[in-house]
Design brief:
This protein starts with a strand and ends in a 6-residue tail after the last helix. It is globular and about 35 Å long. It has one domain: Collagenase (Catalytic Domain) (3-Layer(aba) Sandwich). 50% of the residues lie in helices and 21% in strands. α3 packs across α4 and α4 packs across α5. By secondary structure, the protein is of the alpha/beta class. The chain has a four-stranded mixed beta sheet with strand order 1-2-4-3, with helices on both faces. β1, α1 and β2 form a beta-alpha-beta unit. It has five helices and four strands, in the order βαβαββααα.
Length: 139
Amino acid sequence: MISFNYETDFELENEAQYEDWISRIIESEGFDEGEINYIFCDDEYLHKINVEYLDHDTLTDIISFDYTVGNLIQGDIFVSVERVQDNANDFKVSFEEELKRVLSHGVLHYCGYKDKSPEDEALMRSKEEEKMQMFHVEH
């Protein structure tokens, strides 16, 4: 089950479409969907989590806590809407496109993809692109 929670005034326009898309990402990677919570927040909220739980004193667009057991994908994914907007501006893409990249990024981590080395990061980027293309695909 995928749920969307809001700690800021942002709200997804079509939750059902995003929910279906994320489910299909998980399925396309050969995993089963457990409980996944997306929590949309602002920079301040996410910065506090970053400092408190990860000991990182930096702003970030996403923090994910992975509770995956075996093939069952589960976790909490915190997304800073402010950071997504700033990154969209920096990368000269729409807010929606950058949001899809971040939402897919979080769940791809749960599927085992990393992004610490240049090779891993390149694979993660190509997987994000692949999954973003699935958003509008009817099944």
